[in-house]
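tool_call: predict_structure(chain=1)
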Amino acid sequence: MKLEKGVISSSQLISLIGIFIQGSIFSTVFVFEITPKDAWLVSLTSLAMFVPFAWAYVKLMQMFPGKNLIQINDIVFGRYLGKSISVLYILFIIVLAATNLGVICDSIAGLFMVETPIIALAIMLAFACAWAVRNGIETIARISLIFLTIVSISVLLSLLLIASKIDMNNLLPVLDISLIDFIQVNHISLTAFFGGIFVFMMVIPYMDNIKKGTKSVFMGLIIGVATMLACSVMISGVLGNVAIIANSPLISATRQVEVSKVLTRMDFIVVGILVLSVFMKIALIYYTAALSISQLLNLQTYKPIVIPVGIILVGLVIPMFDNPTVRSEIGMNTWPFFASIFEFLLPAVTLLVALIRRLPQKQGEKC
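tool_result:
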């Protein structure tokens, strides 16, 4: 039984994934701390590394049409082990949502609203996300197309307006970092920008045509990465090595945008627009958290879970973002390994076990 009556098209899935990738744009600070010159290249190499995992997500969905991640775990691993794995997934999804909520609230409070407590911003944003989640995936998908267009145009215009200040020498020489650093920064990029897409294994079952899932996922990835690439070139070209010490490289770069010395400090407008993409990313993760819990508990609908999950997210923001130094250390050295378990390892193992057991053939009627 499906907990959601909404249905999304292949084009809507493209916009959802595109805006989801764009919602990771504030996490680029971790990449620029390691390599301010090669951030643009990391966007491409990490995308190439992610392609097999994206294929694995879609393959699982096509092997078990109409089933979401929680249901697939029960089928592949059995009732008890499957539910145990699902509980771990749910805990990670909640932490992932709280992390993204904290990142945007911390960025806004630290750069623009220094007198505003983070908890106040977190409550307001969580409330807005809860409203979107309660309206269902169909509403979220329709909004995503509008926001994707606005964010993409905003980034393109920012790039054009600041083009005269971009020094291409700041992007050279290419790969002027050690192999260890290159591996580390790609690992960070994989988990921060792309890995969270595994949550779409709770969304793809609501597609009207699952056969178009592969094309939609990769089209969404390309759109999202194009935005990340444009931002990376803009930041590296304008700031150069200064990007290493900038609290927010993107905001520092957009502050250089000027139009005839009349329109200045465009960073307020640009960041305000980019918050739309972060809002959509949090709403999508929030939605999958509520849907996953409801599926695990065999509820008739996920809506009664929405408010309790929002309270949990807000409650996690303060302890997670209490110490900026510790947060940065965890984001660069601990989180990528922790996130890889759920974003890459478990989905790959699930697909491998399903193929070995030939589950689609044996349980075709149930699937």
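agent: Residues 324-357 form the longest helix (34 residues). Proceeding to next step.
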